[in-house]
Amino acid sequence: MNLHPYVVTLGTAGGPRFWGAGAQQGHRCGISTAVVVGDAVYLVDCGRASASQFAAAGLNPKQLRGIFITHLHSDHTVDLPGFLLFGWMMAGREDNPVKVIGPGDRGMLPAINPNASGPVSPQFPDAPTAGTVKMVEHLFRAYSTDITDRMLDSLRPSPYTVFQPEDIQVPVETGFHPNDNPTPDDVEPFVIYRDDLVTVTATLVAHPPIAPAFAFRFETAAGSVTISGDTAPCDNLVRLATDTDLLLHEAIDMDWAAAAYSDVSAATREATLEHHRKSHTTPEQAGQIATAAGAHRLALHHLVPGNANPEVWAQAGRHYDGPLQIPQDLDHLSFARTPSPAAHRI
Questions:
Q1: Does residue 1 register a pLDDT over 60?
Q2: pTM of the model
Q3: DSSP label at 30?
Q4: Could you give the CA distance from residue 150 to residue 167 in angstroms, rounded to a whole number?
Q5: Host domain of residue 247
Q6: What number of other Cβ atoms are within 10 A of residue 186's Cβ?
Q7: Metallo-beta-lactamase domain: from which residue to which, for each copy (predicted)?
């Protein structure tokens, strides 16, 4: 078996938007990355159109071993129903179900943004912060007519025989608390999945108010890839990505963000900009993180806006001397092992 590992950038845009006119109009789907090792495929996040992109990339659902969710924002999960319901048609998975691994229930409400002018309540007080296991249940319930029809009329097995959801258990010793300590310092990467081809480790990253939010590292015999998820600059991510062969990191254009919210109330605009500042990373900061980690290659994805001029993202090269890529959707990026570059810390 050829184990040369690579990723396929199924979708490279971030944010819960349909990106309109611009240099990249129509060329960037929602964030999703396929990690390919030999004949096995592992999926990280399920952004808009990722199920269709999975097929367009020539990948077969029968190759899929795991779906890994960095956090539960809609732009990372909106196509999960497509994988669950269409992938349910895979035969012969009863003894080898696809793991669906992601954050557990937050356990408590986040604080209300101080820009609020009145009371704010959750839309669904009975389950306001559902984790991965409960989200999959909610999705299956939402499609109960479809599932019942196919089980009773077509004699399909339960979709739970094909997909096995799991909530990531954050180690107690990290000191994690969703409100008081969502991104503890000095988190040691911890294993969340292992098979004969990969070991997947995770760490907590800074994406408030979402908690927990994770980054993942896939380690193989032939190389490693680290996928940041959504995060502000974070020492935990540097630790996870140390000496990684490929770092896939999110990036946002803050100049775009400052001008993008003229059609909402002043309170919503300020709250949204505050979120971007404390929860995301500029291209220059991504370059600094790659240098600090000694990453052998850096690629930017989860690009916000999804239709920016490529020159915006090239700014990462101001602080990173290694190979820098700004991939398009469906690009193949190798993460085969390369010699370690000289690294310096920020």
A1: no
A2: 0.94
A3: B
A4: 27
A5: 6-109+127-334
A6: 9
A7: 32-151
